[in-house]
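Is this the right way to post C-alpha cells for a design question? Let me know if I should format differently. Anyway, here goes:
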C-alpha cells in the first residue's frame, strides 16, 4: 500500500479522517444549498494553536444559536483538530471547524428540525488574508456601497458564510483599484470587511465597532494588547466621516493577525505606510505569539 501524504492537508468528516483532497460534501446538503452552516477558524503558528478555547467556545455558541448539536463534545473537537494538525506535521496551519446541516431524509417534512448536524474539520498550510508584503506597506482598502446584512436578519456574532454583501463589496473594491472593502450598516457606521474586524486610530485612541460585526478573537486580542500598552481602546460606533478622517486604520483576523491599512480609497494615510500604533501592535502580536502567548502546543509525535 502506498503511504498517504498528509502534508497538503487533512480532513475529518463526521467521525472519519482523510487527506484533504478526498474530503467531499454531498451537493444536496443544506450546509451547501442553504448556507445552513457555521464555522470557526483557529490558527496554528510556531507549532501551537492560538486561543484554542476561545475559538471552541465561540464555535459552540454559534452552533447552539443555530440549533446544531454534532455528536462531538468540545474536548473531542479539540482532539480532532490536534490529530489533524499532527497528521499534516504543519507548524503553520489554517485549521477550520464547520458544522453543517444535512438535508432532511426523504419522507419527513422538509424542515431544518429534521436535518442532522455534523462536524467537518480541515487543516491546510497557513493562509494569509493579506500577504506579509501587503501588511508591510499597508493594505489598500475602501468603503464599498453594499450595506452589511442587518444584525436583525443575521446575527453577525454567529460565524457564517452569508458573504453576498462582502463579495459584492470586494468586487467593487477591485474595480476601483483597492484590495479590499469595509462595509457600513444602515446607519452609516463601520461594521467589518471580508474576513476581518476593523479598527480606527483617532487622537491616540484605538476604536472598533461595537455592533454589526463578528466578535473576532484577534479583535479581543487587540483590546488586550491596548490595555497592556496603556493605549485607550473604545468599543463604540464609528461613523463613515470619522473613519475616513482617522489617523490610522488597521484590520484584524486569525489568518493575518493585525494588518495595517495605508490607503482608504483615494486617501493616503500617514506616509503611505502603516501608522505607528498599528505597527507597534502588529509587531507585539507576533513577538508574543513566538513566546507562546495564549498557546496550546501541538503534540506532533505519533
Ligand atoms: N469578521 C469576519 C466577517 C470574519 O470572517 C472574520 C474571520 O474570519 C473576522 C471578522 C475576524 O475574526 P477572528 O479574529 O476571530 O479570526
Amino acid at each position: 500500500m502506498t503511504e498517504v501524504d498528509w502534508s497538503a492537508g487533512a480532513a475529518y468528516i463526521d467521525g472519519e479522517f482523510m487527506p484533504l483532497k478526498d474530503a467531499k460534501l454531498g451537493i444536496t446538503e443544506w450546509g451547501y444549498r442553504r448556507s445552513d452552516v457555521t464555522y470557526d477558524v483557529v490558527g496554528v503558528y510556531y507549532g501551537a494553536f492560538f486561543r484554542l478555547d476561545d475559538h471552541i467556545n465561540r464555535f459552540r455558541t454559534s452552533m447552539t444559536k443555530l440549533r446544531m448539536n454534532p455528536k462531538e463534545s468540545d474536548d473531542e473537537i479539540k482532539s480532532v483538530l490536534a490529530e489533524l494538525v499532527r497528521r499534516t506535521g504543519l507548524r503553520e496551519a489554517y485549521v477550520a471547524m464547520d458544522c453543517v446541516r444535512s438535508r432532511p431524509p426523504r419522507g419527513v417534512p422538509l424542515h431544518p428540525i429534521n436535518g442532522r448536524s455534523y462536524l467537518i474539520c480541515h487543516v491546510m498550510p497557513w493562509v494569509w488574508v493579506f500577504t506579509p508584503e501587503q501588511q508591510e506597506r499597508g493594505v489598500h482598502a475602501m468603503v464599498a456601497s453594499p450595506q452589511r446584512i442587518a444584525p436583525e436578519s443575521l446575527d453577525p456574532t454567529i460565524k457564517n458564510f452569508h458573504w453576498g454583501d462582502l463579495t459584492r463589496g470586494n468586487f467593487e473594491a477591485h474595480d476601483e483599484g483597492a484590495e479590499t472593502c469595509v462595509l457600513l450598516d444602515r446607519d452609516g457606521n463601520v461594521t467589518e470587511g471580508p474576513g476581518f474586524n476593523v479598527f480606527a486610530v483617532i487622537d491616540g485612541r484605538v476604536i472598533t465597532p461595537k455592533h454589526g460585526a463578528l466578535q473576532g478573537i484577534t479583535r479581543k486580542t487587540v483590546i488586550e494588547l491596548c490595555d497592556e500598552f496603556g493605549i485607550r481602546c473604545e468599543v463604540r460606533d464609528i461613523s463613515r466621516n470619522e473613519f475616513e478622517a482617522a489617523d490610522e486604520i488597521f484590520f484584524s483576523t486569525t489568518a493575518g493577525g493585525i494588518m495595517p491599512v495605508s490607503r482608504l480609497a483615494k486617501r493616503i494615510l500617514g506616509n503611505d505606510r502603516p501608522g505607528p500604533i498599528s505597527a507597534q501592535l502588529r509587531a507585539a502580536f507576533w513577538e508574543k505569539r513566538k513566546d507562546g502567548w495564549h498557546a496550546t502546543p501541538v503534540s506532533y509525535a505519533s
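Format looks fine. Someone answered above. Worth noting: The chain has a mean pLDDT of 97. The domain at 132-290 is CATH 3.20.10.10 (D-amino Acid Aminotransferase; Chain A, domain 2).
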